[in-house]
Amino acid sequence: MKYMMFVCTDTEPDTDKAAEPDIEVWVSDNDARGRRLEGSALAPTSAATTVRVRDGRLLVSDGPFTETKEVIVGYDLLECADLDEAIEVARAHPMARAGRLELRPLADLND
Fewest CB within a 10 Å sphere: which of 11, 56, 61, 100? Predict the structure, then answer.
């Protein structure tokens, strides 16, 4: 099953002083196991463009539309047997402590 893992900042990161996992080790381990199909950091929110259509009019604005302190800073597309495995993959990601990770299964549009 494929999961999109959104990598987000958080206003309340973990305060544990233990060393955080190394992102390069996490990437190479999950790539080697075939659980990480692709992933990337995103450009800063200052480079974002928001597109909406209202009453047939195109509205384009700079930056994210939402007023939030937490932002998506990257993503990983995962291939896991089930949600439990996806949670274990996310648990080992450094941003599980420094930020937060949102796991969302890809929808099957053929149903």
Answer: 56
For 49, residues 6+ apart whose C-beta sits below 8 A from its C-beta are 60, 61, 62, 63
Rounded Cα distance, 41 and 73, in Å: 6
CATH number, domain of 66, equals 3.30.70.1060
Number of domains composing the chain: 1
Taking only the tens place, the pLDDT of each residue in 71-83 is 899 999 999 999 9
**How many other β-carbons are positioned within 10 Å of the β-carbon of residue 24?**
9
pTM for the full predicted model: 0.86
Domain around 39: 2-105
Q: For residue 72, count CB atoms less than 10 angstroms from its CB and return exposed for 0-12, middle for 13-18, buried for 19 or more.
A: middle
- Quote the pLDDT of residue 66: 60
Q: Is residue 110 part of a domain?
A: no
CA 22 to chain centre: 17
